[in-house]
């Protein structure tokens, strides 16, 4: 009799272990490539906090920063395969999904102000771009800001001629490639996870990024000069696997949408100050000399980069470029 009781206990135990307990949360893995202490990293943390509170703990957001799971090239595949549920890749990195039009955000000097940028991401262009993700099994939840980029190298970059022959690390975007070529540099697309090392070992001479990315990767320790050119924008689309998203109970999805709206306000709200603080910290550290362009120097950069728009028209679509020009004006 004792043996039978033990067997019953064992069977019941196995049954309970196999069936997920009702209280088991749904886990959404959110993978990204930058440090936690960046606008995107902090935006992800804020989303986690808001999402878990709004769902009463029924959803758990598991953040994997610093490419600890996947690098740039792999993370989009991982999302589509269901190996992670959420990402926030830079808008420069959507071409592998067959969506090169996201690269309009890489066009040099395309956004005269942060307001112009908001008009684009929050207007019809932004909505249309996010809607196109649907065919790829992806839902676009929001755009998040990082900010405007500087150019760094081991030599001062004041005029377009200063770029001649420099190997410059870029994100894998054809528009950024064209931008570097227009300046006479040699672009090299390298995953973000490997960018710092590429600068340190001399595989490349320079790069472009926002101050927050430069500082958190300690790129200032391996770049002697940086020009505060604000020549281009770096921002993100927060995306989620469509099957997973649509399988969520409607009340949870609504709560997560609310959390994402609030996290977006937060992320966009801190981005500028984060970048200013990162720049101040790098200036104080004194490894890199930061240069500002005179109006004449800036005009020379604008003139050198003007042809990129026409060159990229067939890739991005002339109608979209014209729409961008109107929306950002
Ligand atoms: C880069 O590769 O430089 C950026 O896209 C990294 C990031 O996610 O901000």
Automatic annotation (TrEMBL):
Pfam families xref list: DctP (PF03480)
InterPro entries named in the record: DctP_fam, TRAP_DctP, TRAP_DctP_sf
This protein's UniProt keywords: Signal, Transport
GO aspect biological process, one term: C4-dicarboxylate transport
Superkingdom, natural source: Bacteria
GO cellular component: outer membrane-bounded periplasmic space
NCBIfam families xref list: dctP (TIGR00787), TRAP_S1 (NF037995)
Family of the protein in this entry: Belongs to the bacterial solute-binding protein 7 family.
Protein's recorded name: DctP family TRAP transporter solute-binding subunit
């Amino acid at each position: 009799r004792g043996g039978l009781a033990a067997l019953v206990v064992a069977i019941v135990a196995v049954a309970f272990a196999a069936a997920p307990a009702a209280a088991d949360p749904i886990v959404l893995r959110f993978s990204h490539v930058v440090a936690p202490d960046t606008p995107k990293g902090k935006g992800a943390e804020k989303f986690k906090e808001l999402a878990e509170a709004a769902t009463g703990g029924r959803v758990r957001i598991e953040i994997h920063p610093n490419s600890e799971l996947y690098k740039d090239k792999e993370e989009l595949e991982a999302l589509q395969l269901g190996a992670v549920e959420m990402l926030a890749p830079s808008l420069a990195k959507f071409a592998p999904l067959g969506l090169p039009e996201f690269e309009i955000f890489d066009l040099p000097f395309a956004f005269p102000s942060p307001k112009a940028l908001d008009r684009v991401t929050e207007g019809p262009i932004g909505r249309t771009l996010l809607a196109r993700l649907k065919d790829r099994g992806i839902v676009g939840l929001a755009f998040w800001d990082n900010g405007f980029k500087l150019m760094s190298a081991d030599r001062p970059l004041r005029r377009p001629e200063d770029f001649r022959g420099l190997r410059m690390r870029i994100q894998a975007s054809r528009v950024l490639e064209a931008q570097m070529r227009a300046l006479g540099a040699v672009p090299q697309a390298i995953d973000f996870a490997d960018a710092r090392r590429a600068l340190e070992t001399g595989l490349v001479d320079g790069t472009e990024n926002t101050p927050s990315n430069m500082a958190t990767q300690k790129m200032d320790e391996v770049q002697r000069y940086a020009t505060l050119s604000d020549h281009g924008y770096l921002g993100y689309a927060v995306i989620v696997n469509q099957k997973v998203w649509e399988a969520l109970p409607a009340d949870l999805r609504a709560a997560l949408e609310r959390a994402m709206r609030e996290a977006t306000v937060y992320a966009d709200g801190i981005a500028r100050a984060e970048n200013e603080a990162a720049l101040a910290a790098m200036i104080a550290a004194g490894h890199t000399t930061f240069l500002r362009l005179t109006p004449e120097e800036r005009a020379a950069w604008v003139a050198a980069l003007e042809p990129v728009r026409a060159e990229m028209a067939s890739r991005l679509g002339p109608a979209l470029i014209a729409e961008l020009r109107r929306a950002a004006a």
